[in-house]
Amino acid sequence: MVNLGSGWGLGDMSPDLEVELARLRLRNPAILASGILGSSYGLMRRVEEAGAGAITTKTITREPREGYLNPVFVDLEFGYLNAMGLPNPGITAFKMELRRAAENIRIPVIVSIGGRDESEFIEVAEQALDAGCNAIELNLSCPHVEGYGLEIGSDIRLACNIIRSIRSISSRPVFAKISVYQARPDIVSRYIGSGADGVTAINTIRAAAISVESMTPILSNIFGGLSGPCIRPIAVAAVYEIRREIPDVPIIGVGGVDGWRAALELILAGANAVGVGSAIARKDLEIFREIIEGLRGFLASRGFKSIKELVGYAQRL
C-alpha cells in the first residue's frame, strides 16, 4: 500500500476519481492494460476486486493462438521485454468468459481485438459485441507478431478502413491502440475521422536483447516489445502532443505506469485514464490500490475535488 506520509491524511475529504471515457464511466482512471490477465472470467473478476476502473482483455483473434515458446519475458531491470505471441483462446471459446463477465462484472470490459485483415477484425468484433463487451480496442500496434498489430497499423489506409468497418457495426466505444510511430496528431486525426472514439497510447516498442554469456538473443522470437518505466517519457510525450493538437480526444495513456506518480504524470500530460500492464509482474494486483490511494491523497493535499481537473494540467499556462 502507498505510504501517504506526513501531511497526506485524507481526513473527511474524499476527492472524486471517477472519469468519463468516450461514453464509458469509470470509478477511477486505472485500467488493466491489454496482454496481462484478461483472458478468463476468473482473472477479470480478480482485477475488478483489486480496484481497477476498467478491464482490457488480452488481444483476441479469430482462431486460438498458443503464442511463442519460452523464453518470452525478460526483466531488464530498467524495463521489461516480452514476445508472448498474442496467446489467446480464440473468440469462440472466449465468448463464454465474456458473457459471464458481462453478467457479473460491474466495471467496463474493453475487448482487445487483433486480426490479419479487415474481415478478421470484423468477425471478432461482431462476436465480442454480441457477448456483451462494453467497448472495443483495436490492436493496431503489436510490435512482434508477424501479420498482426504493427504490420496492420503501419498501413494507415488499411487501419482507417478497419476502424470504419468496426464503427459501422458498433454503437459502443471504439479505441485504436497505437504505437509511438502512429502517435502523431495527423494520424490520430485520421483515425478519429474514420470513427474511432479515442486512442490508447502507446503500445510497447520493438526491441531485442542478447545474452553476453550465450552470445545469442534471449527471446525465442528474437524481437519483442519493450515496456516499463524506461518507455514512460516516450508515452508522456506522445500523450502530451496528441492532447495539445486534438484537445477533445479521449486518451488512455499507457507506458511505464508502476505507481501513482507515474499514473499522474500521464494524466497531467493529457490522459483521461491510464493503462497498468507490466508492473503487475512486480507488484501484482496490489498496484491498483496503490495508484487509487496515491491519486486520492495527492488531490486532497492540493485541494482538488476531482481527477478530471488534472487531465492535461501540465499544458495550461
Helix content: 25-40%
Give the SSE order as H and E letters: EEEHEEEHEHEHHEHEEEEEHEHEHH
- Which fold name is given in CATH as the topology? TIM Barrel
Return the domain count.
1
| Shape descriptor | globular
Total number of strands: 16
Oligomer: single chain
Please tell me the overall pLDDT.
94
In CATH's first tier, which class applies?
Answer: Alpha Beta
Which architecture per CATH?
Answer: Alpha-Beta Barrel
Main β-sheet, spatial strand arrangement: 3-4-7-8-9-10-15-16
Largest sheet: 8 strands, parallel, barrel
Rg result: 19 Å
What percent strand? 15-25%
Relevant CATH superfamily? Aldolase class I
Query: How many separate helices?
Result: 10
Structural class: alpha/beta
N/C terminus separation? 34 Å
Residue stretches low in confidence (pLDDT < 50, at least 5 long) are: 1-12
List keywords for this structure.
globular; 16 strands; TIM Barrel; four-stranded antiparallel sheet; alpha/beta; 317 residues; 18% strand; 10 helices; disordered N terminus
Verbal overview:
- The protein has 317 residues and is α/β, with parallel strands linked by helices.
- The chain has one domain (26-315): TIM Barrel (Alpha-Beta Barrel), CATH 3.20.20.
- It is 34% helix and 18% strand.
- It has 10 helices and 16 strands.
- The chain has helices at 41-50, 91-104, 118-130, 150-153, 156-169, 185-193, 232-245, 260-269, 280-283, 286-302, and strands spanning 19-21, 24-26, 30-32, 54-56, 73-75, 80-82, 109-113, 135-139, 174-178, 198-201, 205-208, 210-211, 216-217, 223-227, 251-254, 273-276.
- The strands form 4 sheets. The protein has an 8-stranded parallel barrel, surrounded by 7 helices. Strands 5-6-14-11 form a 4-stranded antiparallel β-sheet, with no helix packed on it.
- Helix 7 (232-245) runs parallel beside helix 8 (260-269).
- The protein is globular.
- The protein starts with 18 loop residues before the first strand and ends in a 15-residue tail after the last helix.
